[in-house]
Every structure is written in C-alpha cells, then in structure tokens.
UniProtKB/TrEMBL annotation:
Residues 120-266 form the Fatty acid hydroxylase domain. This is Sterol desaturase family protein. The lineage of its organism: Bacteria, Pseudomonadati, Pseudomonadota, Alphaproteobacteria, Rhodobacterales. It is an enzyme of class 1 (oxidoreductase). Keywords: Membrane, Oxidoreductase, Transmembrane, Transmembrane helix. It is found in: Membrane. GO terms for molecular function: oxidoreductase activity. Its EC number is 1.-.-.-. InterPro entries: Fatty_acid_hydroxylase (IPR006694), Sterol_Desaturase_Related (IPR050307). The chain crosses the membrane at residues 25-45, 66-95, 115-133, 170-191, 197-217. It comes from Thioclava arctica.
Length: 309
C-alpha cells in the first residue's frame, strides 16, 4: 500500500506545468504574455469590455479546451508515457552502433564549447524535426484527421496547445526521443560523457530565449508580429495565427524558427495577409464539440477512408 501510494503521489499533476519552465503554461510565461498583450491593447486603444472577455474565456472552445486539458493529462500519464522510448535508450543504441564501426575520437574541445554545441545542435535538429512532423500531420491524409482536432477551434486560448489527439502526442514524443537520443549518442561518441545543456527554468536556453515569453500569444487573438525581416527567422504569434486561419492551413509549420518555412517554401508573413483571420476549419468543426468527439472523430474519418479504398 505504501509503495502504491508513493507511486501515485510521485506522478505529475495536471497543473504542475504552472511551476515547470519546460511547460507552456509556466506562470512566468503566462504573466509575461499577459503583460505584452496589455501593452499592445493599451497602445491600440482597444481595451476589452467585460462582455468581450466573457465571450472569449467562456466560449464553447475555451470550456472544451479546459476540460480536455485534464483528460489529455490523464491519457498522457496512463497511455503515452509508458509507450515512448526514452532518450537514454536511443542514445545507447546510437552509441553502440557507432562503436561497432568506428573508434571514438574523444575530441579535445573545451567543456564550455561542447555544452554550447550540444545545446545548439539539440535545439536546431529538434526544431527542424518538429517542422517536418507538423507539416506531415497536415499533408498526410492519414494523419490530418488526428491533427484536425487542434485546428477545429475558432477561439484561440493558451490551453489550445494541449488540445492534441493522443496519437499525435505519441508521434511527437517519439520524435523527441529519436532526435534527442540521436544527438546525445553522437556527442557522447565524439566527446565522451561530458555533456550538459545550457538551460533556463529547466528548458533549452535557445527555446526560452527565442519564444517562451510570447508563446502563449500564439494561441490568442492578440496580433503580434516581429516585423518583416525578423518574421523570416522567428515564428511570431501573428504567423502562427495565420496557420490557424482555415484559408492558410498549409503554411507556417515552424515551432521556434520560421527559417524552415522560409527555406522550404511554406512561409506566409503577416504583411501578406489581408483582413481578419478566419480561425477554425469551417462548418466541419462543429463535429468536435465534446471531449469524446475530439478523441473518436479521427478514427471515424479513418474508417471511412479505409472503406472507400
């Protein structure tokens, strides 16, 4: 009984993310995003009325996101975490594979240089892999039904980042294990076990430095662009809002760096878009009005596609 209680007690709780710098809802990120939104609204003279705030925060999409946030935490804890490869396992596989063919060079770099190179390589390759998997979720007719649950929302709130189907969560967790484990294994082979990451609040230095404090504005109705030049390099909230516009779903797949969209031809800049965004996926989005629908509708779509084939 004591062991079972200890195990349950040690499991993460739904709102632990408020105090975890690796989570989007970390309190400092939320506070910084709210402060930036406040400054932008004051500058534009568009202070929201109580009715507008109530319509936003109590909308059907907002309520659904709050409920799904709890359900998704339970599914992730019970189903996804036990299925995902660990970064350490992949790193060991990669290291053993390299050792089978080559002798480790153990390059004599300075420790700080190794840590900086490891931190940067992990950030760049992780961000690039997120771009391609996100793009695949849109372009694959077999994966799009699962990603569509995220795009069905017509009201964007910070909790929308957690409205992800469990299958998609599993794919992105496996992506992280493969990329982080691969990079770690290569670096241990090259430099020995002298690895560490530069982090802020427990998250990769570059991720926090580039977008953490405005990341919650991406899933919001606060339009913030970084300017035409910088929007070619970094993903601004306005760019990601374009991605949620049903007219431009096949653009702006980047997570941190817009550079990948620019290089691979999927970049749409805020300056290129006229009029207000049209969030959601149109009338078809009405199918995703409950937690059960978010979980089951993709499988129904998949079944229909297979029957047609």
């Amino acid at each position: 009984m004591t062991t079972a209680f200890t195990t349950l007690h040690s499991l993460p709780k739904p709102f632990d993310g408020l105090f975890d710098g690796a989570e989007r809802i970390f309190w400092l990120y939320l506070l910084a995003s709210a402060a930036i939104a406040l400054v932008l609204m004051l500058g534009a003279g568009s202070w929201p009325t109580r009715a507008r705030l109530r319509a936003y925060w109590l909308s059907s999409d907002s309520r659904l996101d709050a409920l799904y946030f709890i359900v998704a935490w339970g599914l992730r804890t019970a189903l996804i975490v036990p299925l995902v490869l660990s970064v350490q396992t992949v790193a060991v596989w990669v290291l053993h594979g390299l050792n089978a063919f080559y002798d480790p060079p153990f390059l004599a770099w300075r420790y700080r240089s190794i840590v900086l190179a490891y931190t940067l390589a992990l950030f760049l390759l992780s961000d690039l892999s997120r771009y391609w998997l996100h793009r695949l979720m849109h372009r694959s007719r077999w994966l799009w039904p699962f990603h569509r649950v995220h795009h069905a929302a017509e009201v964007l709130t910070p909790l929308l980042v957690y409205r992800i189907h469990p299958l998609e969560s599993l794919l992105f967790a496996l992506r992280h294990a493969v990329v982080a484990g691969g990079v770690t294994g290569v670096f241990i082979f090259l430099f020995g076990a002298r690895l560490d990451l530069y982090t802020i609040f427990g998250e990769n230095l570059f991720i926090v430095a580039l977008f953490a404090f405005t990341a919650n504005l991406r899933h919001s109705h606060v339009r913030l662009s970084y300017g035409r030049w910088l929007d070619h390099i970094l993903v601004s909230p306005a760019q990601h809002q374009i991605h949620h516009d049903r007219r431009h779903l096949n653009s702006n797949f980047g997570s941190c760096l817009a550079l990948w969209d620019w290089v691979f031809g999927t970049l749409k800049l805020p300056a290129q878009i006229q009029g207000a965004p049209d969030f959601g996926i149109g009338p078809r989005g009405a199918r995703y009005s409950s937690v059960a629908a978010l979980l089951m509708e993709p499988f129904r779509d998949l079944g229909q596609m297979m029957r047609r084939r």
